[in-house]
Structures are given as C-alpha cells and as structure tokens.
Amino acid sequence: SAGIITLDPGYKNTGSCESAITYLDGEKGILRYRGYAIEDLAEKADFLEVAYLLIFGELPNKTQLEKFHNDIKANSEVDEDVKKIVDSFPRTAHPMGVLSSLTSALTAFNPSCVDINSEEDMYQAIVKIMGKFPVLAAWTLRRRNAKPYDYGNASLGYVENMLYMMFKKPNEEYKLNPVVVEALDKLLILHADHEQNCSTSTVRIVGSSHAGLFASLSAGVSALWGPLHGGANQAVIEMLEGIKEDGGDTAKYMEKAKDKEDPFRLMGFGHRVYKNFDPRAKIIKKSADEVLGDLGVEDPVLSIAKGLEKQALEDDYFVKRKLYPNVDFYSGIIYRALGIPTEMFTVMFALGRLPGWIAQWREMRLKKEPIGRPRQVYVGENLRPFVEVEKR
Ligand code: SDX
C-alpha cells in the first residue's frame, strides 16, 4: 500500500527480512513507527508509550501503559554480583564496551530468559531487560564518576529515573528539570527504531540462532558503538570541538571532508537510506535551539554546527552525494546541554534504541524465521593444485 517492496514469501533468511515495525522513505524523508509519523510521536507521545507501540504494535491505553511500567519497575533489580563486574572495569573503559559486557552478563543471572518458547516467556524477558538496561547504563556512568550504584526511585517515570540513577548525588535531593526530562524523552523516541540498520540487523541475526534476547542485545550494543553508526554522535562533538579549537575555520574542514586522500569525514553527515533530509535531524535541530534557550546554555559548537550544515547544503560535493545532517549531527549538542558526558552519548542512543531492537527480535522470533545466513558473491581463486612448502 505504501509502495513497500515485498520479498518472495519463500525467501530464506539471508539477512534481509519483511517487517511491519518501521517504515522509511529515504527520498521523501518519511519515518513511521507502526504507521504513526515520527513527527506526531515526538510531539505527542512519551518514550514508554512509543516503546510499547514498537514492541506490541499498538499505542497502549492507560491501563496497559501502567501495567507495562509497573512490570518493568518490578523487574529492574540487577543481581548484586553484577556490581563486581562493573567494578572490574577500569574507570576509563568506554561505556559502550562496559554496557555490552554487562548486557551479556545478565544472561548468567537470568537463565530463564534464554530458552524462550511462549509469549509469556517473551514478555517476562522483555520487561526484565527494559527494567535492567537503564540500571546498567547508569552504573556504567557511576563507575566512571566513582559514585555509588543504586536503583533510583520507583515513584519516578521511566525517563526521569534514568536521569535520577545517573546523576543523583549521595545525601543530596536530586531536582528533575522538566525541560531536561522532556528533551531526553523526545531524543529517546527519535532513536527508538530505524528498520534494518547495522545494529538492528545484528540483533536479528544473532537472535535468529536462538542465542537469547540479552545476548542478541549485547551484540547490538557492540554494533552501535562504531563511529560510522551510533558512535557518530560522540564523534560529531569531538569533531566540532576540534574545529572550535582550530579557530572555527569550517571551510578548511569542508575541504578536508572532500579530499579523498584525507580520512576525515564530516561526522553526522550522510546516510545509507536518507538521500534527502533525515526527519529526525530536523526535529533535533529545532529542539537544540529550544533546550539551550530554556536552559540558558550558550554552546559555541552549536553555531559551528549550523555553519557547517549551511555550507554543506550549498556545496556541490555534498549536494551531488546527497549528504545531509543525520540523527547524530545535533543530538550531542542537546545531550551536552543536559549534562550528559560525551563518552555516554552512544549509551543514550542505545537506551533509545532498546525497544526497537526488542521489537525487531520479537517479530523475528514470533515469525519463527530460520537462522540468518547472508549470501556472498565469490570473487576469489578458482581450484588450484596444492604446492608443498619446499616448493613455494
Ligand atoms: C546512524 O542505517 C541507519 O539507519 C543508521 C542510523 C540509525 O538510526 O540506526 O540512522 C544511525 O548510524 C546514522 C549515521 C551516523 N554515521 C555518521 O554520521 C558517520 C559519517 N557518515 C558516513 O560515514 C556515511 O555517510 C554513512 C556511514 C552514514 C553512510 O555510508 P554509505 O551509505 O556507505 O555512503 P558511502 O560511504 O558509500 O559514501 C558515498 C559517498 C562517498 O564518496 P564517493 O566515493 O562517492 O566519492 O559520499 C561520501 C563518500 O566518501 N561521504 C562522505 C560522508 N559520508 C559519505 N564524505 C564526507 N563526509 C561524510 N560524512
């Protein structure tokens, strides 16, 4: 109906798939979760509602949403021994490496979440990881900051509690800023799913071997870590900071990005699917102005980012290659204004993408898809006779 290409139903899982979760149109800059426009969801829904929509296919009513949140809260406890694993990492360890390890370790403490044979088993595994993943993310940050680990406050909302667990100081009352909560909630919605991107395809293919939900998600965290994927949001801020330190000469970096001999790329630009604007980038750019204005934050890298965007949109190299700002280009500027440290930006992406990964894994398992086995085009040697080592 929306011009979606359907695969031959007899296809074997070659890494491509049919999915009913997210629809993208790269030319028109369209993104829909279960048929709902991202613009509507970002403005009118909250993150937990969107998580429920992605995973179960419908927007929840009040009762369903309350039950989902209560079940998540009831399953957010993480085994005390996991703290020993967190403590085993150097404080300087990259949070994505820590988070991937902790997510995989959850399997050992929740063995019932591996052999999932019923929708009830699936639901229990889902509320467990929706509850525990934000705890692991918070503990990862608190390890870096040498702060004690805790479970937050059950009276808070799902996103409020993320901030509370990350930033509450011992013996101090933590004051939630509604501007910060709303901005983070919107960012998490915008990151929640994106059809068959690198990390989601990873979750699906690992899950297709029935390796268990937590192991599949741990693999997704590792895939997202890369600077060409979710790691780009950290790389964008480091790039903008570098340009600022170098006197803010954006034209010089535009030339570097076009120089084939120079490995420098304009991080936060370009996309495999969006060959026009990334609808998420448009929303985030608007939100960046609002949040920094509301918080009274002056961030010089925001004007550098806007200058780069303006120059790229007028530059033949970028226009010809249809390179536009993507979701990662402005998100780091907001995270920074919210007080989130740069090395945690990709963890924030993972917190947003969690329900999308879960939804895609659940769809793959409910459809009883066969084990994933991407195909190749062989371009190597033809048959050759073996040569003894003495004769080589
Ligand atoms: C995400 O798939 C998803 O949906 C991902 C994501 C999601 O929600 O899951 O949207 C999240 O990962 C967004 C992308 C974040 N990554 C970055 O911002 C890193 C910088 N971007 C590039 O590395 C690149 O644009 C990719 C990886 C995003 C896309 O790569 P493609 O589709 O493989 O494009 P390509 O590398 O083949 O580039 C095509 C041309 C090349 O030039 P030519 O060889 O044709 O002369 O465009 C050039 C590239 O050199 N190019 C860039 C560029 N991106 C592409 N040149 C300068 N700067 C860039 N950023």
Automatic annotation (TrEMBL):
The active site is at residues 271, 328. It holds the Pfam family Citrate_synt. It comes from the Bacteria. Pathway: Carbohydrate metabolism; tricarboxylic acid cycle; isocitrate from oxaloacetate: step 1/2. One of its GO terms (molecular function) is citrate synthase activity. One of its GO terms (biological process) is tricarboxylic acid cycle. Gene3D superfamilies: 2.20.28.60, Citrate Synthase, domain 1, Cytochrome P450-Terp, domain 2. This is Citrate synthase. It comes from Galbibacter orientalis DSM 19592.
